[in-house]
Amino acid sequence: MEQKIYLDHAATTYTKPEVLEEMLPYFTEKYGNPSSVHSFGRESRKALDLARDRVAKAINCDSSDIYFTGSGTESDNWAIKGVALANKKKGNHIITSSIEHHAVMHTCNQLEREGFIVTYLPVDKYGLVDPELVREAITDKTILITIMTANNEIGTIQPIKEIGAIAKEKKVLFHTDAVQAIGSIAVDVKEMNVDLLSLSAHKFYGPKGVGALYMRKGVKTQQMIHGGAQERNRRGGTENLPAIVGMGKAIELAVTDMPIRNARIQSLRDRLIDGIIPSVANTILNGHPTKRLPGNVNFSIEFIEGEALLLSLDLKGIAGSSGSACTSGSLDPSHVLLGIGLSHEIAHGSLRLTLGDQNTEEEVDYVLEVLPQVVQRLREMSPLFNQQEGGKTYV
Ligand code: PLP
Questions:
Q1: Residue 91 maps to which CATH number?
Q2: Are 182 and 311 contained in the same domain?
Q3: Ligand 1 centroid to 101 CA: how many Å?
Q4: Whose CA is nearest to atom 5 of ligand 1?
Q5: Which domain holds residue 293?
Q6: Integer distance in angstroms from the first to the last C-alpha of the chain?
Q7: Number of domains in the chain
Q8: Is this structure's pTM higher than 0.85?
Q9: What confidence tens digit (pLDDT) does each residue in 289-318 have?
Q10: Tens of pLDDT along 196-229?
């Protein structure tokens, strides 16, 4: 029987059957517009309110501070552009890190084109931002700090609480992209000292195309999508109710099941790491050894090309991802891998495997069997790698 093993949960997850089941009636019999006053509308409004309550509970905030969006990307755009544009009389300086997701990085790049000044803080070799560097970067023109909770490529978890405390002390607004963190680590906006936080349902076994933004009451932001009075007059457009209902159910499950799910996923992750490092020579683990997401594995495997590795693994039924060139549609390897100090050559040979709740030990063992063979075959074909009698020489 052909094996198919999905190890790309950081890209997206499947939607849980319990989640889908709650969503389905909102496509068919419960199709009222939440803004309508009649019974159909009221029924939908109730579902919208419940979903908002569930999201709020999961991150410990008031329901009235949650705004539904169309994606994590939209939430990031809204948080960053919204704060920048609404506060530009106060200042034009934004602080972020050099390893943010494109949804944050490209938004900051755009604001630079519009006259804002952005500081992209360096990270250490594990991908960690030093909170003291954040403090030093703050000027009297700083209006926003945006640092992700956990990195999507290397899984490094940032010291958000410490950075948040500095932002609070300096009275600078603090946004965090928690898209990869929800369901993987505890997220509590109060404890983390954050003013704005982005979420996306398809990363925690919910549907795609729905996100949310937490905005603490009193935070001055500009509206991005003008239209009707939805989302308390701050984001126009009829709500994607089936998806929002799904997001509410998914986040509830993601948070309640977290300890058991993550203990399992983390032990599979460690089995993968502990198995690969000794069996594939010249392989390094990217990201922090302990401050990393429970399901994240990211290796740089020297003398191979990440894209070729992905295709070879795919032929063996293993679905992973890479920070190498073609995946991202650009010639440069991932800015995250370069940001942690890898050379272009090493960054090109990277492999990300991200585990989820349906993966098994047998699947991990299959990867442990297949990966060394695939790497060896690719290295034998590599002009960068010469195998010689009595040892290996690299040219
Ligand atoms: N931020 C991070 C850290 C992500 O990993 C992703 C998705 O890959 C996003 C933002 C974008 O989320 P969405 O796919 O919902 O637009």
A1: 3.40.640.10
A2: no
A3: 7
A4: 152
A5: 5-13+258-386
A6: 40
A7: 2
A8: yes
A9: 999 999 999 999 999 989 999 999 999 999
A10: 999 999 999 999 999 999 999 999 999 999 999 9
